[in-house]
Amino acid sequence: MGAELKVFALGLPTVTNSSCQFLLQLLVVDPSERLGCDSQGLMAIKSHPWFQDINWDKLLEGSFEVPAEIASRVQLAFDFLPVDDVYQVFGLQPDEENPPWLDGW
């Protein structure tokens, strides 16, 4: 008997068709049919529709613009978490006012 992927409800938030297809293609049991495991390799993953808005060159250069949704969540954490919690959540030192990972935000 071959291995089978059991699909069941995980109670996840609503997802787009492309994100669902991406996850299902990564979870294919047979490696010869799994996304990224064929002759295209990583390019098959990078060219998947779920990544259509990703500029891979800018990402590698470190100049990829942080999506507004993520930047706003980080800002909310800074604005509303007690100072000690912000340091703990982001792994900052109390004297680190401008951490390098926030450059350009």
Element pattern in H and E: HHHHH
Content of β-strand: under 5%
Which structural class fits the helix and strand makeup? mainly alpha
Q: Count the DSSP helices.
A: 5
Q: Which regions contain 5 or more consecutive residues with pLDDT less than 50? A: none
| CA distance, first residue to last residue | 53 Å
Largest sheet: none
Could you estimate the helical fraction of the residues in percent? 40-55%
CA radius of gyration? 19 Å
Can you give the mean pLDDT? 77
Compute the number of strand runs: 0
Please tell me what the overall shape is: elongated
Short description:
With 105 residues, this protein is mostly helical. Helices cover 40% and strands 0% of the residues.
Write up what this structure looks like.
With 105 residues, the protein is an all-alpha fold. Among the domains are: 17-54, no CATH class; 68-102, no CATH class. It contains 5 helices and no strands. The longest helix is centred in the last third of the chain and has 13 residues, at 68-80. The termini are far apart.
List keywords for this structure.
single chain, 5 helices, mainly alpha
Helix-strand blueprint:
Elements: H1 17-26, H2 42-46, H3 56-61, H4 68-80, H5 83-90
